[in-house]
Amino acid sequence: MKVALFVPCYVDQFYPNVAIATLELLEKFGCEVSYPKNQTCCGQPMSNSGFEHLTSGCNKNFVESFKGFDYIVAPSGSCVLHIKEHLHDEEHPSEAEKISKTIYELVSFLTDVLKVEHLEASFPHKVGMHQSCHGQRGLKLSQMTELNAPPFSKPQDLLNLVKDIEMIELDRKDECCGFGGTFCVAEEAVSAKMGVDRVNDHVRHHAEYITGIDMSCLMHLEGILRRQKSKTKIIHIAEILNGRKA
């Protein structure tokens, strides 16, 4: 299958190793991966700030860059959800609709499309799983704990395939980290306090690493960990699944 790799802005600028791990994972499972070089921001920051009417340029460029592929995959739940729910192009409405249906966050692509049941990866560390809001509540990657329904977690299922990993149990599995895109700028104090609470849940359960599907959430938590001079580190789930040696 022909897969286009969509790399979010913050991954491209600050965590390129996450994009590389995603590429290598997809290739390991037989995907023919392309990277459209004209891709840029998906427009989510503007949309989140109430300026969706100004995202037409981002929408048009996204459609032109990613049309014609079987699937589009990105290591980001928030950007994928934005494209699924908000992508539109008046000149190419059918192409935009197709893209919104064929774009996948990495974990959902591995579990729902590729049906991955085996991984050649080992990560001998205590790891806490941060369930990001966009992935959990938007893309339905895991069950919400407030619901009286059977629990599930697609990221957790994949991590269970990794040898030697020890997943810790958190007190509040699906609590928001406080990042929220532009929320962390508009409501800095609230955002930081929420992040501290999220970090503390992992640290008191002796996590060596905090992982998740969204590097934006992990970037927020990483800043708090650094200010606390904590030994706990962050790592994107793609790096663990790809067999990164810590």
Please indicate the count of domains: 2
Largest sheet: 4 strands, parallel
* Coarse morphology: globular
The top-level CATH class of the largest domain is Alpha Beta
Oligomer: single chain
Helix content: 40-55%
Q: Return the average pLDDT rounded to an integer.
A: 94
CATH architecture term of the largest domain: 3-Layer(aba) Sandwich
Q: Say what the CATH topology of the largest domain is.
A: Rossmann fold
Strand order of the largest sheet: 2-1-3-4
Low-confidence segments = none
Taking all Cα atoms into account, the compactness measure Rg is: 18 Å
Question: What is the number of E strands?
Answer: 8
Pfam families: CCG
InterPro entries: Cys_rich_dom
Organism: Pedobacter segetis
Protein name: (Fe-S)-binding protein
Explain this structure.
This protein is of the alpha/beta class and 246 residues long. 46% of the residues lie in helices and 11% in strands. The protein has helices at residues 9-14, 16-28, 44-48, 56-66, 77-86, 93-102, 106-113, 133-138, 154-159, 183-186, 188-203, 215-227, 237-241, and strands spanning 2-5, 32-34, 71-74, 103-105, 126-129, 166-167, 209-212, 233-236. The strands form 2 sheets. Strands 2-1-3-4 form a 4-stranded parallel beta sheet, with helices on both faces. The protein has a 4-stranded parallel beta sheet with strand order 6-5-7-8. Helix 11 (188-203) crosses helix 12. The radius of gyration is 18 Å and the shape is globular. The mean pLDDT is 94.
